[in-house]
Design brief:
Layout (H helix, E strand, L loop, with lengths): L1 H17 L13 E2 L9 E3 L1 H9 L3 H10 L9 E7 L3 E6 L1 H14 L13 E5 L11 H19 L3 E8 L4 H11 L9 H10 L5 H24 L6 E4 H7 L1 H10 L3 E4 L2 E4 L10 E4 L7 H14 L4 E7 L6 H10 L5 E7 L2 E5 L2 E3 L11 H8 L1 H10 L6 E4 H8 L3 H21 L15 H11 L1 H11 L4 H19 L8 H25 L8
Parallel strand pairs: 5-6, 5-11, 6-7, 11-12, 13-15
Antiparallel strand pairs: 1-2, 2-4, 3-4, 8-9, 9-10, 13-14
Helix pairs in contact: 2-3, 4-17, 4-20, 5-18, 6-8, 9-11, 10-11, 13-14, 16-19, 16-20, 17-19, 17-20, 19-20
This protein binds one RNA strand of 76 nucleotides through helix 2, helix 6, strand 10, strand 15 and helix 16.
RNA sequence: GCGCUCGUAGUUCAGUGGAUAGAACGUCAGCUUGCGGAGCUGAAGGUCAGAGGUUCAAUUCCUCUCGAGCGCGCCA
């Protein structure tokens, strides 16, 4: 809808230019807002205020000129388009259009809001990729839920999405884990899981052997289980760093050498990442001849490029924000032509008994995501993390987590869904289920507000594939549930005295149910029929 | 020291170059002879950290200051 309006405005402006009424200039990007106040329209554009100076007219005059150059009949979707001080162009949706939306939702069901921007395109979606040296923390949880939802939304947009976890099963941390399991003086990690690993593997030999066995165990029995069973995330690919080292690292280095993007200095081989905006060049091969960790990234990047993705998304914790420029530099150096988005999720700060918990796997005092999920339940935990923008440094009090979870807005949303199911169930049982629905009967203010909210869903889904702002889904779900509860309070759905209206309202309620369920599905939370 | 991110109601957080800055929780006051009260309606609560600047318009963009978190290895 927003796109339609923007196109319409753009056409109007270029039309005025063609006719010579306005001078020729590049039309800036047109932004469409949804005003908070109903009387200010359903959509609003500030383009006239932006252009006023260029064409030497007041913003209001500009706005009126744009409106008058719209092709008539205006557009069946709107009942009114007007220019208002100081220069806004406000669009008012027609009831007819809104009723059409309800019909469309009931017809397309969960496919409402699907679109085809991603058709035939592949996305690589890498997230969590935590070291297999211990359980996942609440920080990994945040990135995990975020990545999972981005994947779901992109799939809705028609993209083929490959969810991927990069397993760091090579390198020094394996031996570190080995020492820790053996509990010798080089031990780095601690915690209950180390005790368990110690019982299982301490007889396996040296740090190397013990470390490898323990790593495999952590990956299979802790990480994969947490991800699948607790977090309910499914991955398509678990990419082994070891395998990347065997098959792609050398090849990627040769390619970079061939492109003359490397040089030797101080006995090491360097990649000129500064050529692509990095603040210093990075070592690929250390002076002892060993490959640096970054060489693994090179191989992995080449591997992704060879798999021909149109877009790569990577979700990193804020403690890795320093890698953003170097990874982007790497993608350019290796010639990735698609779009590459790196999303940083800020740290999760945990307080316990009034004190900050400094989370560290090494100290063994990290708060594990599986524990949190066991405590508050999957849906509440997931919704809680997803409510907040990745940019927010979120704080949460562990003592309040359980208590708070009862107040978790997820229940408010799920309750709305269960309530609708109950109403529709009752209608069915009492044989009052409507066969046909005349949505023309929907005219109550609460009904209109509800329909307008439903109409926003496709725009929202499409925007999220662009900007990855998944926290907008929970917010939308809460708003929709809110509008429904309010409608429910004001309007009786099952009404034997007025079967026609009742039929229309059942259709409306069913539309809300569909969109609510679909939103919850994208968030990854259940939509219960009963609670 | 340098860099990235953040600072909005009592608390946790949305929001935006524009029209009266929002929600949840907490607080207070109402709503039940009807479809699920896990609900609804309303109220109180703000110097958008502070100071400059750009703009017709800044909480939003720029600079500086203060405060918080995180990074700055030929570690992985």
């Amino acid at each position: 809808m927003k796109k339609e309006i923007a196109d319409k405005l753009k056409n109007a402006v270029t039309d005025l230019q063609k006719k010579g009424v306005w001078p020729v200039f590049d039309v800036p990007e047109i932004k469409i807002d949804c005003p908070k106040e109903e009387k200010l329209g359903d959509y609003s554009a500030n383009i006239a205020m932006v252009l006023a100076k260029k064409i030497k007219k007041t913003p209001l005059e500009t706005a009126n000129q744009i409106i008058s150059s719209f092709q008539f009949p205006i557009h069946s979707s709107f009942k009114k388009i007007e220019a208002v001080n100081p220069g806004y162009i406000n669009f008012y949706l027609s009831e007819k259009y809104l009723r059409g939306v309800i019909a469309e939702i009931n017809e397309r069901k969960e496919k409402f809001g699907d679109f085809e921007t991603g058709k035939g395109k592949k996305i690589n979606n890498e997230f969590i990729s935590a070291n297999p040296t211990g359980p996942l923390t609440v920080g990994n949880g945040r990135g995990g839920f975020c990545g999972d939802v981005i994947g779901r939304v992109c799939r809705k947009a028609g993209f083929e999405v490959v969810n991927e976890f990069y397993v760091n099963d090579a390198g020094g941390q394996i031996e570190k884990l080995g020492h820790s399991v053996l509990k010798n003086e080089k031990a780095a990690y601690s915690g209950e899981y180390i005790d368990e690993l110690n019982e299982k593997y301490s007889a396996f030999g040296g740090a190397r052997e013990v470390g490898e066995a323990a790593t495999k165990d952590v990956l299979e029995n802790i990480i994969k289980k947490t991800v699948a069973e607790k977090m309910r995330i499914s991955y398509d690919v678990w990419m082994s760093e070891k395998e990347i080292h065997e098959k792609y690292v050398e090849k990627s280095i040769q390619l970079l050498k061939y492109k003359k993007l490397t040089y030797e200095a101080d006995g090491a081989l360097w990649l000129k990442t500064t050529k692509f905006g990095d603040d210093k060049d990075r070592v690929l091969i250390k002076c002892d001849g060993q490959k640096a960790y970054f060489a693994g990234d090179c191989g992995y990047m080449l591997n992704k490029i060879e798999r021909k993705f149109d877009r790569m998304i990577m979700i990193l914790g804020a403690d890795h924000h320093g890698y953003v420029t170097r990874l982007k530099a790497l993608s350019e150096a290796l010639g990735f032509a698609g779009r590459f988005d790196i999303i940083i999720t800020q740290m999760v700060r945990v307080t316990k008994d009034g004190k900050d918990v400094r989370m560290s796997k090494r100290a063994g005092n990290a708060v594990y995501i599986s524990e949190l999920i066991d405590k508050v339940g999957h849906d509440a935990a997931r919704f809680f993390f997803l409510m907040y923008s990745p940019d927010a440094h979120m704080n949460f009090n562990l003592n309040l987590a359980e208590e708070k979870s009862e107040k978790n807005p997820v229940y408010y949303v799920q309750y709305a869904h269960a309530r609708i199911c109950s109403i529709l169930r009752k209608a069915r049982n009492e044989n009052r289920e409507s066969k046909t629905a005349d949505y023309g009967l929907l005219a109550h203010p609460k009904e209109l507000v509800l329909m307008k909210e439903l109409n926003k869903f496709p725009d929202l889904a499409e925007e999220i594939t662009e900007n990855c702002e998944v926290h907008k889904l929970p917010h939308f779900a809460m708003r929709l549930a809110d509008k429904f509860h309010s409608f429910y309070d004001a309007c009786r759905v099952i009404d034997e005295k007025n079967p026609e209206l009742s039929g229309a309202r059942q259709g409306l309620a069913n539309a809300v149910k569909i969109v609510l369920a679909e939103t919850l599905r994208l968030i990854g939370v259940s939509a219960p029929e009963k609670m």
